[in-house]
Amino acid sequence: MKPGMLAHVCCGPDALYAIGVLQQEYDVIGVFHNPNIWPPEEYGRRLEEARKVEKILDFQLIEERYVPEAWFEMTAPLKSEPERGRRCAVCYALRLERTALRALALGLPAFATVMSVSPLKKTDVINRIGSRIARKHGLSFLETDFKKKGGFQKSVELSRRHGLYRQNYCGCLYSRRDSRT
Ligand code: SF4
User: Fold this and answer.
1) Which of 27, 59, 70, 114 has its CA 20 to 30 A from that of 76?
2) Would the pLDDT of 24 be above 80?
3) pLDDT tens, 114-145?
4) Contacts by 148-153, CB closer than 8 A, 24 or more apart
5) Residue 101 has pLDDT above 80, yes or no
6) How remote is the CA of residue 1 from the centroid of ligand 1, in Å?
7) How many domains in the chain?
8) Mutate to test the pocket of ligand 1, among 36, 80, 97, 178 (most ligand atoms within 8 A of CB)
9) Residue to probe by mutation, ligand 1, list 43, 81, 83, 115, most atoms within 8 Å of CB
């Protein structure tokens, strides 16, 4: 029997590759916790794509409550930061903290995130934050860099093959703003 793992899912394309990799060694449950995504229609669209991946890979995906107000409040002082800057560290921490709490509630000893598929995410920062949160809660965090070994390209090819929507900005209002300038 494979050990259990809770994987934070940020979007369908990243999950399609990374959950597949994790399933080789773990019995994976996914959690969709992304209060950063704006506007709400975009949130709905990304969740829908993640649900398609849930079916394709046959795992359970839990949706946490979508409360963007809390995310806006926490990141308000950092709204002028560029993508990959200090706002992103707060954003990663908020999502991984909730993932850790969900792992505890489910009795799972370990958690991970699929976010490291993206070349736009700072993997070292994600791994440092995830490990710190894990230590705080007595859990294990699986440090990954899914974009390595052609991981990002594989995720692009897989999502194309399955007709998944690929977003053109990271997720928050500010990354949307910056993608249009
Ligand atoms: S750019 Fe992406 S990681 Fe950074 S704050 Fe926005 S949604 Fe979060």
Assistant:
1) 114
2) yes
3) 999 999 899 999 999 999 999 999 999 999 99
4) 151/17, 151/18, 151/21, 151/117, 152/117, 152/118, 152/119
5) yes
6) 36
7) 1
8) 36
9) 83
- List, in sequence order, every residue forming a beta bridge with 18; answer none if it has no partner: none
In degrees, rounded to 5, the angle at the alpha carbon of residue 166 between the alpha carbons of residues 161 and 170 is: 150
- φ, ψ (nearest 5 deg) of residue 107: 75, 25
pLDDT higher than 90, residue 57: yes
| Residue for token pair 């500010």 | 174
Domain assignment of residue 129, given as a range: 4-179
CA distance 98 to 77: 21
- Closest Cα to atom 5 of ligand 1: 88
Q: What is the mean pLDDT of the chain?
A: 97
Please compute the mean of the pLDDT values over residues 83-100 and round it to a whole number: 96
Q: Does pLDDT of 18 surpass 90?
A: yes
Position 180 scores a pLDDT of 77
Does position 75 have pLDDT exceeding 80, yes or no? yes
What's the CATH code of the domain at 31?
A: 3.40.50.620
State in Å: Cα 2 to ligand 1 middle.
Answer: 33
Query: Is 12 a pocket residue for ligand 1 (Cβ < 6 Å)?
Result: no
Instruction: Choose which residue among 37, 42, 172, 173 to substitute to test ligand 1 binding: the one with the highest number of ligand atoms within 8 A of its C-beta.
Output: 172
